[in-house]
Amino acid sequence: MTKRILFVFTSANKTLTGASTGWYLPEAAHPYYILAPHFTIDFASPAGPNPPVDEYSVQTFQDDIGKFLKKPEVQTKLSTTKKLSEVDPDDYDAIFYVGGHGPVLDLAVDPVNIKLASQFYRTGKLVAAVCHGPAALVGATDESGKSIFAGKAFTGFSNVEEEQVDKVKDIPFLLEDKISSLGGKYEKAAEPWEPKVVVAGNLITGQNPASAHPIGEAILQALQK
Average pLDDT in the 20-42 region? Predict the structure, then answer.
């Protein structure tokens, strides 16, 4: 039977300063290109259909407009995106959180998401996230009630990268600091914006937009074992 992956998108479209935000185009598109030929992929978000895409990412990654954003099958998935409250974790083998600044604002504190992520992790299913996506997992816990990051290596958008895009004031916390405070052991690429993926058991994280393709490869490898 074909394995199923749930791609989770933010529903937030504004940052703390009122700047527009959303999910980051290549961080959904690049893993999708790798995974869609092998698995069934469904989309979900807190508010359901048509999660907001970050307009800056659309302007910056124009190759992914035709290949992903305007592809009929993807448009159908976006327009019929499930609400997180409608998701049954038993239907899926893996959950993947798409980045963009949005997840730091909504998914990080969404009780439905926190419960869902914890359920995936506790049942040994693959939990993956790229860039700001790991922010969606800051409330997720293992069976003992500990953070899923406690004692584990992880990566995600670095403090330096956040400063370089001048978005520190736009979000409630810096991902590197927050997850480190939960007991995670932060790792990053030698230089900002270079790809970095960390596999720690059934938890897979990617650092930034450049990590979207390699995290797709890591998820593929993990699910084909």
Answer: 98
